[in-house]
Amino acid sequence: MMDLKNVLNNFKLKSTPCRAEVLTLLLNNEHALSHSDIEHQVDQSFDRVTVYRTLRTFLDKGLIHKVLDDEGVTKYALCSECSKEEHNHEHVHFKCEQCGQTQCLDKIQIPEISLPAGFKANQKNILIQGICDQCN
Description:
By secondary structure, the protein is of the alpha+beta class. It has four helices and six strands; from the N terminus they run H-H-E-H-H-E-E-E-E-E. The strands form two sheets. The chain has a three-stranded antiparallel β-sheet with strand order 1-3-2. The protein has a three-stranded mixed β-sheet with strand order 5-4-6, with no helix packed on it. Strand 2 and strand 3 form a beta hairpin. The longest helix has 14 residues. The two termini are about 30 Å apart.
C-alpha cells in the first residue's frame, strides 16, 4: 500500500482526513470516478463542497486529471504518468458500454493531428466506447 502522506507531501499538500480518504478511493479504483461517485463513497461527514475543493486542489497540483465521458459527466483519475513538472493526459480513455466504467489507457497515446491553418489545439481527448476486458 502506498504511503498517502508521502504522496500528498510529494505534491506539496498537507494531509487532511478528506484528502486521505479521496486519495485512497482513487488509488483503490482502476476506473475514473465522478464527483458523485466519490461523494457517495467517502465518509458522510465530508460535505459536497469539501469533496469538490479536495478534487479541485488535486487537479491544480497535478495529482489527478479530468476524464470526460460521452454523457458529459466529468470524472477524475490519478495521474500515473505525470510528474509535478510535466503533465501529459493525452492518452486514450475507454468507456465500457456494459458496466459504464471509464478507464485511462495510459499506454495508448493520442496520435498527432494536423489542424487547418489558424486552428490551435490546447487539449486533446479521445474516448473509445465498447466492452471492457472484465465484461467481455
